[in-house]
Amino acid sequence: MFASVPDILRLAVLPVLGWAAWRDVRVRRVPSRTWYPLVGLGALLLVWDGVGHLSVGTSADVLFFVRVGISLLVVAPIAYLFWRLGGFGGADAKALIAISILLPTFPTYYFAGFTLPVVVTTLGVFSMTILTNTVVLAAGYPLALLARNLLDGEVAFPAALFGRRIPTSTLPTAHGRLFETTEGFTRSGLDIDALRMYLRWRGTSLEAVRANPERARDPGSIGETHDPTDGAVGDDADDGGSVALDADGTAAPDPDPDDPWGAEAFLEGIEGTAYGTSPGTLREGLEVVTERDGVWISPGIPFIVPMFVGTLLAFVYGDLLFGALGALGVV
Fold first, then answer.
1. Range of 119's domain?
2. Is CB count within 10 Å lower at the N or C end of the chain?
3. What is the mean pLDDT of the chain?
4. What is the Cα–Cα distance from 163 to 176, expressed in whole angstroms?
5. Residue 259 carries which DSSP code?
6. Is residue 148 in some structural domain?
7. How many CA atoms, within 13 angstroms, populate the side-chain half-sphere of residue 225?
């Protein structure tokens, strides 16, 4: 293989994205420091390439700066905007911003008889190709979820397109949102991280709450409260043990009898919003998980996973959408 030094260094994005995707699947958390080396490397390589293009000044060199501008001034802001609107997680946005700096233009890798990527777009903005590849791959996730559910004999709709059914006892290590209420299906059910936060705040476990829901529903049963953490799986706090609710527990000061489960007390007593959870959503979710042995959840998929695959495909194949449109004779 032959390539320029900057293009060889840009391959560093693949192991970093691969590790981030693996971690996001396991714990839904990617440290911000993960992206600092890629941003630093990207800035260094932009200067390296920019100096070379400034010294020549042909139309191709001007086009290089236009493409860099699109990557930095269009792709990066798109990532930030989608994060602000809730379409991306923070790690997803930071990953795409890092990519917009590190991979603004198409790299080229020469092999005996062929070069990669195979399909290069007219626009020539590599970070944009990674974004479109990611969107195309993510769009196929509901179909893959449907196929899995049908193979498992789960045919409830629309749940089979957007969720999966799991044993309630496995919620302490699950990710996503409840896809159901006591009345039916919903896309805005209780966030499972928020459920873990609530259990840790009470100093109890899902097993204990399910064993004595009447006691847990009584706000007077809430005694000493604890650090709820951020709800991540694997925290040192108890999120699935067998701590029993104390039937004679010491009540929290002035518990509100009109606050079932202590939902309002929980949300008022923590910093932040527990992933947008309202008292009503928390109460409804607790009713579901204490009544049923199996629940539908909407697990979603960390955007970094299709981003990693989309990036890998971009390096090897190129632009999936542009290639498909070319095969249809559209471009």
1. 5-140+302-327
2. N
3. 89
4. 9
5. S
6. no
7. 21
